[in-house]
Amino acid sequence: MRSNTTKQIPLLFGHLKGNGFQNATPSMVLHKWTELINAKLNPLDIDGELFTSEAVQLILSESNNDQQTIRAMLIEDLTGKSNISDKELYVKLNQGFLIRMLDTVFSYRKATPASENISRLYDSISQHLQGTLDFIENFFGDYFDRNEKVPEPYFTIAREDLKKQLKRFKNAISQQGNIDTALIDIIAESFNHLLGDEIMTISYSQLTYYKTLLNELQTQKTLQSTKVIIDALHYMNFNEDNFIAYQYEWLKHITEHLCTNKEKVTALRFEQKNINQLPSKLNCCYNPNMPSLKEQINGWIDEEVKYLDNLQTPEKAEGKISVHDDKIHTSLSVAKLALIIRLLVIDKIIINRTVAPMLRIAAKIFTTLQREDISFGSLETKYHAPDKVTVNAVRDMLFKWINILGKL
Length: 408
Known about the structure:
Blueprint (H helix, E strand, L loop, with lengths): L1 H7 L2 H4 L11 H15 L12 H27 L4 H28 L4 H24 L12 H23 L6 H15 L8 H14 L8 H10 L5 H15 L5 H16 L16 H20 L15 E2 L4 H13 L8 H11 E2 L8 H9 L3 H20 L1
Parallel strand pairs: 1-2
């Protein structure tokens, strides 16, 4: 009975052997893997008695051979395509197919405890799929879709490596006495959502960014001082909200002890020159949905300089507008107003390229329940670091709006 069962399973992989395999295509090999994963390895339907050690060994042997064969097929198929867009689409389709299968096997592996033979199948098939995907990335890198999600098993391993690297970085920093711990906390916090236990979706480009960032931060040169770390973050275009707020506070600190507006403008322009001369890594950023780090800091400095220049040239009395005519009065707090503005930016309803100038305008034209004149610094701080109480209050407000919409 066992010998008959052993013969039945490999038929799933054996129907393309011989002369028929000469006309096989990568999609046919991928289809074979899909058939095995969806039809035979689903933990809800799996028949463990069919998968004896002999049957498993035959399946894995043929799967390994297919892994080797599909590489030659992929090369032959891709070299036969002359159009770049055709090559990109071809690689994208095969890449996506492999990622979905890897995620499926990973979910099977986590679902319920499996027998030793089934676990061996899960692990080995995953290795064959990942090996094929790695081959596509290595050999067809120019056409590999870096915005595609990373397979869950691959990300699970990469996440553990990132945890170790971040720990090494923090240990190395702890031995230095001249580095701002607030800056290190900002860097570490930016990794927290990535290093949690829950499964999350992350693209190849995002994962590469985190890896490159940690490598850059762990060089002997970078560990020397706070300034060198800040320069490295500028090189990596670390346009993370808390770091941008940290930079704004640093710029304010530079000017707060200067006596005249002219001195403040000179100091700000000097720092702007230094920042703009810092090197930047091409096509690199922490948050692709926001303007670059330099753009946002340049915008803040330009607005601050414009403000200081206007203070030196008072407006004519007849040109002034009544306080009551040039303001939009609200019953919001500064924190709620800042969070609502941030929601509009994230949802791309407000599409200003730089945040600081837009906040400067908002501070001038809006009032809150507590005060007629909003502090730009207060509005900016609340924009970049909303507290949980405000988040919950705005959430309740949005639910209230939904009810109001239903009655319109």
